[in-house]
Amino acid sequence: MRNRRIVIDRNIFISAIIGQYSYPYKIFSDLVATGEFQIFVSDKLIKEYREVSQREKFEKYPEFIKKANDLISTIENLGVMVKPSRKIELIKDLPDNHLLEIAVEANEYCIITGNTNDFDFDEFEGIKIFTPKEFYNLVVS
Predict the structure, then answer these.
(1) Shortest CA distance to 24 belongs to which of 134, 110, 141?
(2) pTM over 0.85
């Protein structure tokens, strides 16, 4: 593993809030909050975390908004903010390219995403692409 820098897709952010014992939750609680891995974000990604967490469909989960705001605060406190200088247009769902841009800017180890439709490749310029389960099992084993 070349470094301990990661970027986390918004679907993993949401899954961490909903599933207390899920792999996304464990990534934040066991690996990011403890400082074992460093999360890199941008203003745009933080804005996406905020916007997606405000969707009506999440109102059915008790305390979802509070948990989302708490997790965003944790990410803002522990994360490293970057401003990508390179525009990448590899993924057809254009907003997802921003994750690649952050990862390249930060010279990250990997991107963690549940979006296997758009991230249908294992690596981009040396940056690994993992599902949460793959990533957690790799680093914890």
Answers:
(1) 134
(2) yes
Angle between helices 97-106 and 43-53 in degrees, nearest 10: 140
d(CA 43, CA 35): 21
- Indicate the Cα dihedral angle 116, 16, 106, 77, nearest 10°: 170
10 Å CB burial of residue 33 (0-12, 13-18, 19+) is middle
Query: HSE (CB half, 13 Å, CA atoms) of 115?
Result: 19
Q: Where are the domains of the chain?
A: 5-140
Residue 53 has pLDDT above 80, yes or no: yes
Take residue 98 and report the two structure tokens written for it: 């921003």
| Secondary structure (3-state) at 35 | coil
2-12 pLDDT, tens digit each: 789 999 999 99
Domain 5-140 coded CATH 3.40.50.1010:
yes
